[in-house]
Amino acid sequence: MALPGARARGWAAAARATERRRRVEGTGRSPRPEPASQRAALYVHWPYCEKRCSYCNFNKYIPRGVEEAAMRRCLVTEAQTLLRLSGVRRVESVFFGGGTPSLASPHTVAAVLETVAQATYLPADSEVTLEANPTSAPGSRLAAFGAAGVNRLSIGLQSLDDTELRLLGRTHSASDALRTLAAARRLFPGRVSVDLMLGLPAQQVGPWLGQLQELLHHCDDHISLYQLSLERGTALFVQVQQGAVPAPDQELAAEMYQGGREVLRQAGFRQYEVSNFARNGALSTHNWTYWQCGQYLGVGPGAHGRFIPQGAGGHTREARIQTLEPDNWMKEVMLFGHGTRKRIPLGTLEMLEEVLAMGLRTDVGITHQHWQQFDPQLTLWDVFGASKEVKELLERGLLLLDHRGLRCSWKGLPVLDSLLLTLLPRLQEAWQQRTSSSVPGG
């Protein structure tokens, strides 16, 4: 088996060779960018963890033993199949999520990247992100992932309080987290993101803001703030139901979030999405694809995707979900080349609803040009310009609708969910009005 570094050099060399070939074919000029229908991000799901955290209901498994060579072959096979079915010619970014993908071998990461580079155009400077937990990512292991082609890390730090970490069921301590973060920053300077949770049971505003201030002394240029969501079926949900721990206080969580936004703004971070903050241009380009409703392929057990299956003669974008359970998923991949369990065609209205709900999560919002890529006939002005309810939101300073497009204000971003309760029905009404007026006698 080739070493991870050799594999990484392999996909980087393949990317350079493809670019040189395109320059030759284009008589020396830079290659023209592919249309949006031929570009996509790639998400790769590693479903295994050492331990299930008390708050987590994601698709993950605690295995007795992982046949990684078999899993690697199936990830490679499914990536090849979905790239062919999608007709995608350029992969913009790759994200290894989970689960805990830092438990996988760097060989697995390198094999997937090499496959993508051979099947399509993967630029040598593409963002390649790996999610990592502190306990599964000592410095030497992180270096091996870097040699395999990873150039950005997302570290599940979650808290700098050991009592909170135990409550969450995390296997690392605060000192473990800071040690891993320091090693990551040495290896991937400017390209390390950390997650911090808020709204935990018994958590108070002042101490949490103190954690955030402490983190600013150690962090890189990207921080994600996530409010705890108490999910039915998790150990923490049961503890709260039984009264063993207090229920999270939603008002305190809102105070933490608002205070955290202000702390990060003063520290030079841009809140470019509801939960994500970056400075020095260190945005996650992979996640930006999601929020802009770009195409993405989901590889691995339970992965989700959104793409037009052009390679199979399709013309409509589909939402795809892969089989959840790893063993069943591998059997399907070995039989059919992929483990897609659900294929849901997305109509234009469904796409516009996604554009609205996802685009408003960002500080850019939805530009008129972006909206018209999905429906050139029904403009943002047509949908929202004459609505009394929307006008009220504009007057309250929660929304902005102007020559740039539609977006939330700084004040409106934290209450986006409530804004969508007004905006989505208005979109549906405008769509129905247009549809009925286009029907003879309608």
Automatic annotation (TrEMBL):
GO MF annotation terms: 4 iron, 4 sulfur cluster binding; metal ion binding
Family annotation (Gene3D superfamilies): Aldolase class I (3.20.20.70)
Keywords, ordered alphabetically: 4Fe-4S, Chaperone, Heme, Iron, Iron-sulfur, Metal-binding, Mitochondrion, S-adenosyl-L-methionine, Transit peptide
Highest taxon in the source lineage: Eukaryota
Listed CDD domains: Radical_SAM (cd01335)
Main localization, broad class: mitochondrion
GO cellular component, one term: mitochondrion
Protein's UniProt keywords contain Iron-sulfur: yes
Cell location: Mitochondrion
UniProt xrefs under SMART domains: Elp3 (SM00729)
InterPro entries in the cross-refs: Aldolase_TIM (IPR013785), Coproporphyrinogen-III_oxidase (IPR034505), Elp3/MiaA/NifB-like_rSAM (IPR006638), HemN_C (IPR010723), HemW-like (IPR004559), rSAM (IPR007197), rSAM_sf (IPR058240)
Annotated Radical SAM core domain residues: 34-270
UniProt biased composition (Low complexity): 1-16
Protein family per UniProt: Belongs to the anaerobic coproporphyrinogen-III oxidase family. HemW subfamily.
UniProt protein name: Radical S-adenosyl methionine domain-containing protein
Native source species: Daubentonia madagascariensis (Aye-aye)
